[in-house]
Amino acid sequence: MVNVLGHPAVNYVATVPGNTGVAVAFGAEIIITFVLMLTVLAISNHARLSRFTGLFAGALVATFIIFEAPISGMSMNPARTFAAAFSGNIWTAIWIYFTAPLIGMLLAAEAYLRHAGVHKIFCAKLHHHNDKHLGTIIAPPHIHNMAWGDEDGKTLYLCARHGLYKIRLNIAGVRPREMTKQ
Question: Using CB atoms within 10 A of its CB, is residue 34 exposed (0-12), middle (13-18) or buried (19+)?
């Protein structure tokens, strides 16, 4: 059987800097993760646009694949980069893909906090006003994001590693639109 992943054109799908060099690749990785994280923070905390966060993020990733991939290989994901490097034993400038995304995300979080302020960050907490236990939600492992939905606000949507989960509750959660009215 022919090793398709090892073909020079595919190169184990390893993420390596482009012809512009390591320094440019490092800067490009910081920039794309900064832009992606800042967009996710801004859109997910916007009352009318929050439900479109995934579309904004997907459009950015598609744009990055087209325009930025030739510069740095477009990693943004250290785990994927490590897996490809490990499979092909290709460790060219691997440090870029472990440091630049963290720097970009931390800079974006700091920029968002300084621009919008802590009061503009929404919280997915079930109940804020007292320490009364309302119940326990048995959730799937590895939750990445969650949001309240449906007309009455009593449905909690959880995005986890293996799918999207919908949990119907007896109480309404706080949704971004409601938080901006307070």
Answer: buried
